[in-house]
Amino acid sequence: MALIDMISSRAAAPLRRSAFSLTDYLALRRSRRALARLDARGLQDIGIDSQAAEIEARRSFWDVPDTWKDQ
């Protein structure tokens, strides 16, 4: 591997770890919309109450979960 390739790949590595694709954001949006459509039994199945589901469903698609921020 040439030196310039090594430098380029090292410089781009932090960007790859912290950047999310449009597909990721759209999937998050779809998940939150699906969460908003669950009834009481569906919410019970996944172990959250209706208030927590409503709060999560109202978050904007760019408001990513904390677990995404650690990546």
What's the gist of this structure?
The protein is mainly α and 71 residues long. Helices cover 73% and strands 0% of the residues. The radius of gyration is 18 Å and the shape is elongated.
Describe the structure.
Pfam families: YjiS-like (PF06568). The structure is a single chain. The protein has five helices and no strands. The radius of gyration is 18 Å and the shape is elongated. α2 packs antiparallel against α4. The longest helix has 16 residues. It has a domain of 42 residues. The chain has 71 residues and is mainly α.
The rounded distance between the terminal residues' Cα atoms is: 27 Å
Question: What series of H and E elements makes up the topology?
Answer: HHHHH
User: What is the helix content?
Assistant: over 70%
What percentage of amino acids are in beta strands? under 5%
Largest sheet: none
Shape verdict: elongated
In terms of structural class, how would the helical and strand content be classed? mainly alpha
- Note the total helix count: 5
Total number of β-strand segments? 0
InterPro entries: YjiS-like
Organism: Roseobacter cerasinus
Protein name: YjiS-like domain-containing protein
Domain YjiS-like: 22-49
Which tags fit this structure?
mainly alpha, 71 residues, single chain, 0% strand, elongated
